[in-house]
Design goal:
two-stranded antiparallel ribbon
Amino acid sequence: MPVVSKSSESSTELSKLVYDNFYEWKLETQKELAAAGISEWVIDPPALPATASLQLAWRKEQKEARKIIVSSLSTVMFEKYQDLINAGDMKVLWDALQAAGTAHSSGAQHIANIKEELGKEVFNPSIESANDYVSRLRKYRLRLSGDTHPFTDADIKAKLIASLPRLGDWKIVRSALQNNPGDLEAKDELKVAPTAEPTAMEANWVANRGRGRGRSHGGYRGSRARGRGGWRGGKATGDHRDASGRVEKTAKLDRN
C-alpha cells in the first residue's frame, strides 16, 4: 500500500495519494504494478489484440491496473481526476498524476517543510541503533526527490556523524565513519550499536546535550571549567590561579 500521508481525512484515507506524498506513492504503486506484471499499462500500454481470446486477457490486465491506481487515490484526488478515470486510459491518468505531483513536490515551500522536519531528526542511541537512524534518514532522500540538490549518502553520513554521542565506544564509530568513505550500509560499525545499554550518565548527556554552555566536548566526563580532578577526583586539584569563585568551588569539593 502507498505510504502514510499527512492527510487530515479519515483513517481509511491515510494511506492514499495526496500531493505531499507523491514520490512515496509513486514508488509503492509502481511496485504493486510490477508485482502484478502490468507495469507497461502506465508506460507503453499494449494495443487491443485482434482475437477475442486475447482481448479477454487484455481487458483483465487493464482492469487490474485501474484497480491498483484508483484504489490508491485519496477521495480528493479521485474527485479531481474522475473524468480521466472514467475514460479508462491508465497511461493518461498516470501522466496527469505525475505531472501534478512532480510540480508540487518541487515547490520551494514543500521542500522547505521537509527540510525543516529533517533538521529535527536526532539519533537517540538509547532507543535505536545507528542503522535504524540511517534508514530513517534515507526516507528523506525519496521525499526530497523534487529538490535541485539531492539528499545524498554523503549528507546522511554527515548528519549521522554530527548526531553521534561524544562518549564511550561511539568515539570509535565516529572515527571509523570519518576516516572510511563509502556506502553506509556496508559499514560493520553500524551493525551493532556500541553501548546499547547506556549508563544513566550517558543517557542524561544524550537527553540534555546542547543545553547550557558549560557542558564539555567530552560529554559526561566533566564541565569545561573543571580542574584536573574533574568530577571523578573530588579533590581541590584545580588551578588556584583562577578567579576566586574557582577556589571556593574546589574548596567545597575538599569538604565532601
